[in-house]
Amino acid sequence: MPTWFITGCSTGLGRALAAAVLERGWQAVVTARDPRSVQDLVDAHPDTALALALDVTDPAAVTAAVQAAQERFGAIDVLVNNAGYGYRAALEEADDADVQQLFATNVFGPVAVTQAALPGMRARRSGTVVNVSSIGAQICPPGSGYYAATKAALEALSGSLRREVEPLGLQVVVVEPGAFRTDFSGRSIGESAGAIDDYAETAGKRRKAHDTTHGTQPGDPAKAATALIDAVTSAAPPKLLLLGTDAVTAAEGVLEDRRAELERWRELSTSTEFDD
What we know:
16% strand, two-stranded parallel sheet
C-alpha cells in the first residue's frame, strides 16, 4: 500500500488529491498549516490518514513532519509538493518582504521537504517527487512575474533533480495546472500594497479588484487529482504533466512562438563561434 505525503491540503488541489488517495485505500500524510482544516479527512480514514501541521518555511517543522510520516507508515512513496500561493504585482511595484516570503514558500519550502524525504527514497531505491508548478511558468502573465519566477525556479530544480535521482530508481514529475476552481485566485493570492498608474493596462488588469475569474475557472480539482494519480502511477510517469485544456493550449502557443523565434534568429545565434 503506497504512502503519499502531500503538502498544502487545506483547500484546492491538495485537498482533492488527499481525498482521492484515501478513497483508493492508500495511506496519506495530509499536511496543512492548521491541521484542523483536514481533520475531517482523517476522521473518515482513521487507519490510513495522518494529519500533520506543516509550514514548509519552518525547517524544524519539515523535519518533524517527515519523521512522523515515516514512523507512522514506514516510508514515503510519493511526495507531492503542492503548498504555495500566488502574488500579483508589476516587477516595479513589488514589496521586497512579500517577494522573499513568496520564494521561501514556493521554492525553498519544496526544496526543504524534498531534502528531508530523499534519504528514505534513496535507501529504498524507490519513490516519486511531484512538484506542483503552474502554466504561469511558461506564459509569464504581466503582473504575475514573481509568481511565475518561483514556479520556473521549481521546474529548473526539478529538471536537475530528475537527472540526479533517476539512476537511483526515483522519479520526478512536474505538474503545470491551468485555471482550476479553487481558492487560488481568492484567499490564496496576495498583491503589492501599491499600484503604479502606468501599469494599469498590463499588470493592473490582474489586480484582485479587477479579477472576475474567481469561482468561474474551468478546471475541476477532483478531476485534476484523478489525472495526477493516473500519471504518477503509470508505467512511465511524465516529466511534465499539463492539467487543463487551457494549459495545453497555452503550452502549444509557447512552443510555436519559441520555435519561430529560434528560426528567426538562428543565423545570428550560430555566428558566434571561432572561424578556425
